[in-house]
Structure prediction request, 267 residues.
Amino acid sequence: MQVGSRDLAFGSLYATGYYRYEHPHGILPTLHQAWGEAAAGGYFNIDLLHPPRISECDTVAAFNKGRPVLAAAHRIDPATLVMAFSYHLATEFRNSLVYSWLIVEQLIGQIWDELFLSQRMSKFQERIGQLQASARSAAVRIEFLTEAGFVDRKLYRYLQRARSARNDLIHKGSKPSQGDSYFSLVALALLLELICIKRSVHFDAKALLKGFSKGGRQPKLKGVIRAEEANWSAVTHWRAVKPIPGEKQWSVSYEMRPGLELVRTDR
Prediction:
């Protein structure tokens, strides 16, 4: 059985053995929360008060606009591209960085094979074999592409920031920041734009990055919170949740089962 990040939830476990789901991260823990609170789809009901609307014509227009871009950047997997941006919006910056850097390496590989090597072949064909043997990693190829003028100073900085963060994540387990994830997405978008320019395909990197942020912008808080701790000026919708054994609002007896209640130990 495979467990993903969307299967996780945060909450409070009381000494009575009862657990309160407070911040579910996906459909399954949200379903468990609904069962526990005897309130099916509470968050979903609130979301439906102002649901996002995407029309059929918008979907068709987006598909027609994106098709030539994906045809130009034929090495990338559209699903991986979507996950890179989706994880960033979900503030899961580790996953976003991993997927976006995977796309970056695929784009660098395409630029290297189809643009850089063909350019060098026309000038000095005897060096192609040596270039292919000595420049297998993305880091080395970035340096060659920079020297050849394919990568400008701004894109170079984005690539170095993203590559460093990705290496720290993979080799040291370091947590990437929102900025690390964002700059990797920027590098991805600029490389995609470069390929489209060379293929005479219209693509606007700024349009792809619209709505994304490198820091400071926090998602709307959605979850269980104590009334005395809430910032009521920022609350748009709310509903009371039923108390469970272990909370001060619970005043009646509750079911006890052997092994359910937590026992404090000396350790």
